[in-house]
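Format is chain and fold; as here:
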Amino acid sequence: MTTQQAGPDLGRVQRRTVGVLSGAVALAGLGVTVGITIGGLLAREVAGSDAAAGLGQTAGVLGAAVLAVPLARLSDRAGRRAGLAAGYAVAVGGALLTVLAAVLSSLPLLLAGLFAFGAATACGLQARYAAADLAAPERRGRDLSLVVWATTVGSVLGPNLAAPGADLGAAVGLPALGGGFAVSAVVFALVAAALVAGLRPDPLLFSRRLRGPVEAVPARGRTRTALAAVWSSPGGRLGLVAVVVSHAVMVGVMVMTPVHMGHAGGHDDATTLRLVGLVISVHVAGMYLFSPLVGWLADRAGRRATVAVGGGLLLAAVALAGTAPPEATGRLGAGLLLLGLGWSCGLIAGSTLVTESVPADVRPTAQGGTDLVMGLGAAVAGAVGGPLLAAGGYGLVAGVSAALVLPLALVWARP
């Protein structure tokens, strides 16, 4: 079957694919951002230190990074539907394990649960690549960005479910912060079922049928070979650095913001949790709400220009938020809004560059490898956030995060 013969059918399949993926990540965003909002707080509660808050978020980020590779390999072998559904199933187990850890007040169990919980983040990120499998080159950035944008629905509402989730947990005899993860488990189970039922035909397998046979890539060293192919291209190199730097800066600042706000005086715990939820909601809106505009910008103004805009926004964000005291909710919200916008520019333009930099036969592996490196960078940023906060405060966290933009500027300046 040729692409021309499949023309109308291809367009219909792509619209359906983007719709199903968008609905899935919109719902999953509820569960993911509840975990982002309270994961660090739960780790601090269990361990009794601010440094442990960074460990909790780092476990989730590291899980998203490490699990990206096997999920990408599963997608490569069996299709996007299998890879995404399996990832959300792992996240269900992680959420339930986290609830158990809250009941037992066990930090090792909590870190293991948050690690598996990170599979949901890995799936949300890989869904953007699934949207690009059948996309026309001139619409690749926009189709990819539509799935990123759909995350807005659940992700903006999710942080505000932290307080009701705590009430639910208390009502059923769970520790308050464990209730939110129980909600996440139910959400992820529904998403996995929806993907199995609705993502038909599978976009990756369908695109391969249209192209015909592709050259097999040896399993041994496959991820390393794919990443080398990305790095060998100037566009791929810029895309890889853009997604890694954008994600690391975003995570480094975001995960310490709830802990920083927890140091404000004059509020009870419930009020603090609501304010934290509000700020994180604004941040997540910046990450996802303007994604279609970012995708349009990447297609029209170019990927490199969009990456440059993202770098500038990241620097503005850390300057604004990093100088805000814990009680300055409005200023922190504005800073984290810019942080989300900068992340969106780097992720969408960078992901498009990575996708376009390698042949189709290694594309899923290259995408999974990119997400691995991206997640590892963010895990390091999250891990050092707690000690930096303890040593020098939130301003030091922001200053170190700003310094991470320098490698991106260097790669951008040398095409």
Remarks:
- Confidence is low (pLDDT under 50) at residues 1-7.
